[in-house]
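Example record used in the benchmark description.
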Amino acid sequence: MTEKKIAEARALKEGYALFSPLTNLPYVECEEKEFNDQVFLYASKDDAENAADAYEENGIRVTVKELKTVRMKVEKKQENIFLNQVRQHLSTLPFMGVNAVFYVSAGGEGVSVELKELLPEGYEEKIRENQFYQPNLQLTGMYLMQEARRKKEYVDMKHLQELDEEFSSNLVKARLFLAVLPPQGHEKDQQIDLKECKLPYLKHQNGDYFFPVFSDLWEFQKYTRGQKDLRPIQVPFPEITKFWVKDAKAYMLNPMGYSLPLTKEMVPRLLDKFGVSQTPS
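Model output (structure tokens):
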């Protein structure tokens, strides 16, 4: 039965995924048997919406995202290609540290399938070994914000503290990405002088300014989509306070994802708590 489900999920041309509005990312859970970190995929819209309603009754907010196969026109080649959004969705999961999918066929029972059964051989390993991606940081951030932003009456404070410590431990060891704007005429230079670059900022609707930072290249690219002149630089977390936007209220980690604010004053406190040197080599 599992092999049949795997084949069906691989061939899916449209489906429905559960997303968390608290993180702007797929809703993730730790599977109880093998302790895999899994997301949820449905062949039927009705099944997905029924699952979302059940989560809502337990104080967990999720939304249903439709995934289709869409026709896209390639201007330069004057031809059409077809983008399978289900496959695209599955291919992004390794960036988040997700390693399983709970797949439910139309009107049928669900089965937990390891992601390696659905993706090309070796794909997950390539992501884990690439220094431009930090799946553990993404994953622990997702779990933290799913719990922290729940309605207060549903929050497990002990569990929240555990999630916060696990995420913070990953954060202080991370190398974060910043977006910089090189001087005009030097956007494509192989080497750039950071002192000559501008740093973008985010302005909240209430007027507050935030300095965007990113856990990985994937989150950076989501933010800079359509802004081709912005360049990424990677900075160890202990050195992040060397970069700042005047009058910013806080850093904003992954503004297109879980949007986690981090004040400048929190950086040395986290480094002290988790024993990481503030002057790395």
